[in-house]
Design goal:
Layout: H1 2-17, H2 19-40, H3 44-64, H4 69-77, H5 79-85, H6 90-119, H7 127-151, H8 158-186, H9 191-220
């Protein structure tokens, strides 16, 4: 646990020094959502119907912006090799880096989401469900993204390759995240969608650190 907290603290300090990266993610999220009313028109009923999908797609794309640097910076300066050789299990170190990534990208997106939901005229009954879905879904995005970021280490066109790897895996999170909000807005039960999002998170939590750790070892050989 001590090693886990040290890696989390180190990555948070690094993120604080390069605070522009986190601001860039939030700025992209806000701009992407704000552009939709200009494209589809300001009709409140139309915006309310597609608000959940807009927010989720924008959050998904914004979370991807910083994935490439999840391991790349440590790979370039040699820190990643030290992590592999350290007494802390590589899988635990990967999980710590994912937690730091979520705290610096996922949490700001969750904080900004209610304000953007108001802009898109989302119904009040969908606010709590949207936040719950994002709380369950954004950590899953970070965990899956860590596997993709580990697989592209050393690749010349890592950003494009990363998108091709992780976007198909993000689709279930997107479907059930939007589905939960839409069900709440329509007056139907939404517990099943949230439970599935929780199951996806637990599955990613169990599998993704191991897969990312194996990919990192392969990249360093």
């Amino acid at each position: 646990m001590g090693g886990f907290l040290q890696v989390v603290g180190r990555d948070l300090r690094m993120a604080q020094r390069h605070g522009f990266d986190s601001l860039l993610v939030v700025a992209f999220f806000v701009i992407a959502v704000v552009l939709f009313p200009f494209g589809v028109g300001p009709e409140p009923n139309i915006l309310a119907r597609i608000a959940a999908g807009i927010i989720w797609v924008a959050a998904l794309l914004a979370a991807m912006l910083s994935l490439e640097r999840l391991f790349q910076a440590d790979h370039e300066d040699g820190s990643l090799e030290l992590l592999v050789l350290s007494p802390v299990s590589l899988e635990i170190a990967v999980l710590a880096k994912v937690v730091a990534h979520w705290l610096t990208t996922g949490v700001p997106l969750i904080v900004a989401a209610p304000l953007l939901a108001v802009l898109l005229n989302l119904g009040g009954e969908g606010f709590a469900v949207l936040l719950a879905a994002l709380l369950l879904g954004t950590p899953t995005l970070s965990l899956i993204g860590a596997v993709g970021a580990a697989l592209i280490l050393g690749s010349r066109r890592g950003g494009v390759l990363l998108s091709l790897l992780v976007l198909p895996l993000y689709i279930p999170v997107l479907i059930f995240g939007v589905g939960a909000v839409d069900a709440a807005l329509a007056g139907f039960a939404f517990k099943a969608q949230l439970l599935i999002l929780g199951g996806l998170f637990l599955g990613a939590l169990a599998l993704c650190p191991w897969a990312a750790g194996a990919a990192i070892r392969q990249a360093l050989e």
